[in-house]
Structure formats: structure tokens, C-alpha cells
Design a protein that fits this description.
Elements lengths: L2 E3 L5 E3 L1 H34 L4 H16 L1 H19 L1
Antiparallel strand pairs: 1-2
Helix pairs in contact: 1-2
Length: 89
């Protein structure tokens, strides 16, 4: 990870370091949420049968999928960043 040195000789975090940490945290959270969906789905099917799966897991799955739409925002912002950077390089 690149580290910049400021005028006083102190290390500063670069945007890419912050971005990398955010994406790692985001992906870990997303993977954890989908794991919970999988576990709840399997438990529900075993205990109550497949007929009640949506009632039990549907709402949580909906919000997990809604959070996953941030992938689109990440792609758009990354694409915009590259376009703007290329314009000024």
C-alpha cells in the first residue's frame, strides 16, 4: 500500500489505502451477511420445510441484496474516477 510523506516528514494515508480498507470491510460484511442468509435458509428448510423459507428469510435476504447494490455504486464511482483522472493526466 502506498504511503505518502507530508511536509513535516509524517506518514499520511493515501486515498488508495483508505479505499482498500473500505472495500475489504465492505466485502467482509457482504460475505458475512450472505453466509447468514445461507445458514438461516438451511436451518429453516430442515426445521420447517421449504414452504416457510421466504417468510423466515425473505426480509433479511431483501436487505442483504439491497446492500449488495453498493457494488453498482462502487463501479460507477471507480469508473468516474478513472475518467476524470484520465482527463487531467
Amino acid at each position: 500500500m502506498p504511503i505518502e510523506i507530508d511536509a513535516q516528514g509524517s506518514r499520511t494515508k493515501t486515498a488508495s489505502t483508505i479505499k482498500s480498507r473500505y472495500l475489504i470491510l465492505y466485502n467482509a460484511l457482504n460475505a458475512s451477511l450472505w453466509l447468514v442468509v445461507l445458514i438461516r435458509t438451511v436451518i429453516t428448510i430442515i426445521q420447517d420445510g421449504p414452504g416457510s423459507t421466504y417468510d423466515t428469510v425473505g426480509g433479511f435476504t431483501k436487505w442483504t441484496q439491497t446492500i449488495a447494490t453498493l457494488e453498482i455504486i462502487h463501479a460507477v464511482l471507480g469508473g468516474i474516477y478513472h475518467i476524470v483522472r484520465d482527463l487531467y493526466d
